[in-house]
Write a structure and sequence with these properties.
This protein is of the alpha/beta class and about 200 residues long. It contains seven helices and nine strands. The chain is globular.
Amino acid sequence: MTDKEASPVAGLLLAAGGGRRLGGRPKALLRHRGRPLVEYAAGVLRAAGCARVHVVLGAGADAVREQAELGTCVLVENPDWADGMGSSLRAGLDSLAGTRARAALVSLVDQPGIGPEAVARVLAAYEDETSLASAAYAGVRGHPVLFGAAHWAGIAASATGDRGARAYLKQHEEAVRLVECGDVAQPYDIDTVADLAHLE
């Protein structure tokens, strides 16, 4: 068994968005610190301790494959990416089903203000396949989130449109362990042209 297979928590990066409010520029290909944003975000998951990283691609998938160095990441193509984040989350969880992963640590490509330290904190909340944990910023739930494998089917069933796992997490609020990360990360999204100022 390789180390990649032995690690109970897999990183799952959702990077399929088309950047509709950015003039149709795929978010994965925005530049940050001299590289495509998807490459940076995958690196954050690795630096935090995720040996296995699955990256869900959609808009501009071929260009992402050409331009980003994603090394040993498993690339998962979501043909339904235009339906919203829910379809990408379902595709990503589905791709983990045949692995030894007992939990998925889910992060979003358009949140470069969330670095390895915050991700590692959420990763440390893993106990077993029933674990549910989320980063929190001043007590408000945000990303990344950790889903034990026992929850994957329920999350996939409720993930629709751009809502991802929101409905499932609300339903299971009492079981979600909040991990405060506001002192080490900023959870802004790169959604509009004005937000591009956050990129370096």
